[in-house]
Amino acid sequence: MMEHFPAESEEERHQEYQEWAGTLDALEAMVEEIRTIVGYRRTLLKNADKTLQEFQDTISAMVMAEEFVRKDWTAEPPFPEEDDPDAGG
Description:
Blueprint (H helix, E strand, L loop, with lengths): L9 H61 L19
């Protein structure tokens, strides 16, 4: 860490203060710019996540529809119908 030596004259102190103030202003501007960039990237990420979820939902719906169409509706059900008197039980 840099050691701070006291300025020898009032003019040097004033100049040093202005340099620090300029540095702080530049840092504040950088922080604000970073906040803007982070906010923009968060928005992009949220939009991408939403788009991905919609895509996954669409794929799932397509797979379910395809499985429904492929199902053999003429096959016997795996369990007897409750209303069927011939089912026994």
